[in-house]
Amino acid sequence: PLALILQAHGTNRDLDVAEALTLAGATPVFAPLNELRAGKKSFSDYQMLIVPGGFSYADALGAGKLLALDLTSYFADEIAAFVAAGKPVIGICNGFQALVKSGILPGGNWGVVNGNLSATLTFNQQGHFECRWVTLAPRSSLCLWTRGLEEPIDCPVAHGEGRFLLQDGIDPSVLAAADQIALIYCCPDGSPAQGAYPANPNGSILDIAGICSPRGNVLGLMPHPENHIHPHQHPHYWRGLRGRLGLALFRNGVMYAKDFS
């Protein structure tokens, strides 16, 4: 399957995610936003859509906000059709921020409440940029990216605005009830983080590291699974640590995307 990787000024994890997709069996294609606006590439020609990490537009008005404006101003119809077709979409870190701030996630009937976005990703509870390795526990059987994954995933985070919150008055249990909590932060031994720092690096409610759309084909997450696709990338590899790669996540997405090839 062909995987469309969006590129904006400040994107810097595009090559990393391209390697992950290649290892998983997809063919990555880079697409600067101006090429898409000019019609040189079309969303409909691809089977996967990736919004990678980085600092799009230098996070000038907030992390992912200007990229979110691009998505809603220029590509709303194309992305809506892509999502409605059931094709796999993933937004990582800055890409997750853009998906949330454009209203693509959480999606469904409660993505916008009283005219406002129901969710946001805001400043880390500790008040500073977090760059550390974390452990993720897959939670959703609805999400095609995490479906069937049982082993935890170790990968790094690198963000200053990764704290997932819902609008006041929205019970966060609605996400759990809809099976839209795709990944949570947990302790290295797999036990729940229970909001404790540093296992939960940003203070996200319910230890949420990633959520999916109501249909399960769109995943957004703050950590970077594309940066643990080779065993030697883990800082404890030379101490004997093996497994818990992020590659399984991409293999799931690629396997599903083959249905659209």
How many angstroms separate the termini? 6 Å
Biggest beta-sheet profile: 9 strands, mixed
| Overall shape | globular
**pLDDT averaged over residues:** 95
Read across the widest sheet, the strand sequence of neighbours is 2-1-3-4-13-12-11-8-9
- Please give the number of β-strands: 13
Query: How much is the radius of gyration in Å?
Result: 17 Å
Question: Uncertain runs with pLDDT below 50, 5 residues or more?
Answer: none
Secondary-structure element string: EHEHEHHEHEEEEEEHEEEH
Quickly count the helices.
7
Helix content: 10-25%
Please describe what this structure looks like.
Helix 1 (14-24) crosses helix 7 and helix 3 (65-74) packs across helix 5. The protein is globular. The protein has seven helices and 13 strands. The chain has 261 residues and is α/β, with parallel strands linked by helices. Helix content is 23%, strand content 24%. The longest helix has 11 residues, at 14-24. Helix 1 (14-24) links the parallel strand 1 (2-7) and strand 2 (27-32). Strands 2-1-3-4-13-12-11-8-9 form a nine-stranded mixed beta sheet, sandwiched between helices. The protein starts with a strand and ends with a helix.
Features:
7 helices, alpha/beta, single chain, 261 residues, nine-stranded mixed sheet, 24% strand
How are the SSEs placed, and which strands pair?
Elements: E1 2-7, H1 14-24, E2 27-32, H2 33-37, E3 48-51, H3 65-74, H4 76-84, E4 89-92, H5 94-101, E5 112-113, E6 116-117, E7 119-122, E8 130-138, E9 153-159, E10 163-166, H6 173-177, E11 181-186, E12 208-212, E13 218-221, H7 247-257
Parallel strand pairs: 1-2, 1-3, 3-4, 4-13
Antiparallel strand pairs: 5-6, 7-10, 8-9, 8-11, 11-12, 12-13
Helix pairs in contact: 1-7, 3-5
